[in-house]
């Protein structure tokens, strides 16, 4: 199978790329981003990885070659309002780029879109103070609107990013329930492999933190 990963340098994305490269079920792993591929990743996946370095503001055009013949698109790209610099830039990264990629993936025949969002995602939130969950919810709706044969939406709570944890996240790790970034990555892959093995019907599945934790413990594809 052939996978395309957007956000492959983040906490979940880096684990996703690593485990896709290790899996014999994936013959080609495509990574798309604005930075060059890390040398150690390129060396590890020399026989099966392809990297497209693009201008993300022209993502609809420049990402298209990367999406031809892809079985599953994994979107694990994300930011925060603080890191983005403004609400407008946050929306561009979280929603506009995603919408462009989903449309192009659909046009190029992709059947499965796997999307990482967040616990509490809700397109119905209107308050400016709830920009994050609303934008995540709108992102889910944007992908669902493309009517992929399979849309998988993953809504983790607090991620345990290990050494990549932000200061606030690190402070909360021993207080609130968490899920390891590597477990999220594995569960997303298992879900994609299970669906690609069977390709049964059209479906949209939303996976909660609890279902992901259970799947990670069992070592199997998650149940909604």
TrEMBL record:
One of the GO biological process terms: import into nucleus
Endpoints of the signal sequence: none
One Gene Ontology CC term in the entry: cytoplasm
UniProt cross-references to Pfam families, sorted A to Z: NAD_binding_10 (PF13460)
Native species: Chlamydomonas eustigma
InterPro entries in the record: NAD(P)-bd_dom, NAD(P)-bd_dom_sf
Protein's name in the database: NAD(P)-binding domain-containing protein
Start and end residues of each NAD(P)-binding domain: 7-189
């Amino acid at each position: 199978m052939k996978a395309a990963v957007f956000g492959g340098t983040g906490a979940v994305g880096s684990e996703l790329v690593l485990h896709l490269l290790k899996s014999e079920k994936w013959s080609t792993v495509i990574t798309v981003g604005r930075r060059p591929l890390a040398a150690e990743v390129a060396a590890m996946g020399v026989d099966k990885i392809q990297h497209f370095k693009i201008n993300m503001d022209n993502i609809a055009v420049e990402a298209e070659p990367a999406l031809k013949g892809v079985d599953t698109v994994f979107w694990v790209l994300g930011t925060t309002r603080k890191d983005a610099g403004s609400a407008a830039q946050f929306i561009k990264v979280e929603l506009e780029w995603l919408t462009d990629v989903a449309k192009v993936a659909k046009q190029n025949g992709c059947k499965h879109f796997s999307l990482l969002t967040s616990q509490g995602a809700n397109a119905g939130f209107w308050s400016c103070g709830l920009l994050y969950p609303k934008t995540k919810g709108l992102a889910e709706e944007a992908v669902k609107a493309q009517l992929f044969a399979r849309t998988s939406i993953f809504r983790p709570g607090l991620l345990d990013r290990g050494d990549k944890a932000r200061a606030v996240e690190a402070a909360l790790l021993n207080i609130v329930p968490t899920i390891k970034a590597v477990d999220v990555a594995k569960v997303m892959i298992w879900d994609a492999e299970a669906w690609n093995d069977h390709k049964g019907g059209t479906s949209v599945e939303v996976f909660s933190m609890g279902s992901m934790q259970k799947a990670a413990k069992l070592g199997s594809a998650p149940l909604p």
